[in-house]
Amino acid sequence: MTPPSPTTRPENAPPAQEAVVDLLGVLAYGCLSGFSRMAVDAELAPALPVKTAIAAMAVTEFHHYEVLADRLDRLGVSHDEAMAPFVAAIDSFHDRTHPSDWLEGLVKAYVSDGIGRDFYSEIATYVDPQTRAFVTRVLADAGQAQFVVDTVRAVVDADQRTASRLALWGRRLVGEAIQQAQQVAVARESLTALLVGGWGSGADIAELGRMFARITQAHTERMKRLGLTA
Amino acid sequence: MTPPSPTTRPENAPPAQEAVVDLLGVLAYGCLSGFSRMAVDAELAPALPVKTAIAAMAVTEFHHYEVLADRLDRLGVSHDEAMAPFVAAIDSFHDRTHPSDWLEGLVKAYVSDGIGRDFYSEIATYVDPQTRAFVTRVLADAGQAQFVVDTVRAVVDADQRTASRLALWGRRLVGEAIQQAQQVAVARESLTALLVGGWGSGADIAELGRMFARITQAHTERMKRLGLTA
Asked: Do B32 and A55 touch (CB under 8 A)?
């Protein structure tokens, strides 16, 4: 099913500006908290090369945050206020998924980055083309994911016990991530309207379900790339 | 006393290259660990604006690290190996100075950044002009210190009890920093030779003492700028 173009949004949908601010706000706080957690997780790394690679990923997240905050400021919106509604859900995700070692940290960085990217891309389908193009640019992978894939594969290909543990970890991550994403989507009227508004009543919940099915499927493929069963 | 120019280094001094690698190595790890600790400390901040300001300071440290690592690589030296001898001393400093709240974190960022800058600048006096100019560029304050000064002053000017606590914290920081800096200077033959080699025997220890006196004096002035007694 091809999602409708933004021009088909129903008249009772919230102002487009509000949805754009919510999208940029949740994305900005996702990047900011991603920075913080990855910077902390980098400390778990056993050696300097891995530590600095994770730190570099964290710094990339921070620069994404800066670009998003700047965009919000240019829209005349306080970026702190735009992020505020999403702090609890995103912090809750991180609080419930503390990695116990550097490998779990790497898998979390890769998996949650991927899920976040999919989720935001789905939302971005329904905003104006300029915002959509902007979000797509910000979300573009800087090639750092390959480092995670190579590093994790090298370990799990040689160690079945670690592979099992990380596979379990991946399942927990996707469960927690989708639970928080659902809360975010449902708690913010503007995002809900954005996501379900285009289909008219009846198809709403079904389409939301399909969206999360697509995100879960993409997650399964990412886990395979890590050499893990989802 | 004007330090001698690099050309007066005694013949029994270690190869200049070794001292340069040590200087860039200790500086690189100082920045890398500064990044990690500040990113962690940012989490202590009570509100998003302070949190992101501290995170931005952390990211600046990481970019300094990148520039230094790149310079080492261009010299044909593994930056990880160049940093390795200094990991224990710098980690020890951080482990002994965990801030208990965001204000202590801010004061630590400002104070240890300042002491580090002074210490590295002193060492840089004795290396080749290109390295010296490079280190000076890397160490240039990006204007972030003013944010710390303004934020801390606003709190301590209104709260004498916090001012006393932070003054005590500042004294602990400078004590720990100088202790670790002395260990670094003494443990690395090339740095010791660099620092004391220029003065000939006899003046060595006295000049080292004067260097640490200069660093302590600069620290006192920084504390005053924060509105604190050193």
From this structure: yes
Task: Kindly tell me if the per-residue pLDDT of A75 is higher than 80.
Answer: yes
What pTM does this model have?
A: 0.84
> Looking at chain A from residue 129 to 188, which residues have their Cβ under 8 Å from any Cβ of chain B?
none
* Full DSSP string of A179-206: HHHHHHHHH-HHHHHHHHHTT-TTTHHH
Distance CA A196, CA A202 (A): 10
Type of residue numbered A113: D
- Label residue A202 by pLDDT band (50, 70, 90): very low
In chain A, which residue's Cα lies nearest the Cα of B84?
Answer: A48
Contact status, residue A41 vs residue A99, Cβ threshold 8 Å: yes
- Chain segment B81-91, per-residue pLDDT in tens: 999 999 999 99
Using an 8 Å CB-CB cutoff, list chain A residues near B56: 62, 66
B81 vs A contacts (CB less than 8 Å): none
Overall average pLDDT of the B154-158 stretch:
94
d(CA B47, CA B70): 35
Q: Which residue has the tokens 């240019």?
A: A74
**Interchain CB contact of A86 with B (< 8 Å):** no
Distant-in-sequence contacts of A216-222, Cβ < 8 A, 24+ apart: A216/A174, A216/A178, A218/A114, A218/A115, A218/A118, A219/A111, A219/A114, A219/A115, A219/A118, A219/A170, A219/A174, A222/A110, A222/A111, A222/A114
Measured between beta carbons, the chain B residues lying within 8 angstroms of A62 are 55-56, 59
Residue carrying structure tokens 């990855």: A38
Query: What counts of helices (H) and strands (E) characterise chain B?
Result: 10, 0
For chain B, the first-to-last Cα distance in angstroms comes to 26
A40 at B interface, C-beta within 8 A: yes
> Looking at beta carbons, which residues of chain A come within 8 Å of B43?
36, 40
Partner-chain contact B62 A63, CB within 8 Å: no
Torsions phi, psi for B105 (to 5 deg): -65, -45
Cβ <8 Å between B55 and A40: no
Task: Tell whether the model's pLDDT for residue B55 goes beyond 90.
Answer: yes
Chain A residues close to B49, C-beta within 8 Å: 80
Q: What chain B residue is nearest to A36 in terms of C-alpha separation?
A: B39
Q: What is the DSSP string of A28-84?
A: HHHHHHHHHHHHHHHTT-SSHHHHHHHHHHHHHHHHHHHHHHHHHHHTT--HHHHHG
Q: Does B49 touch chain A (CB under 8 A)?
A: yes
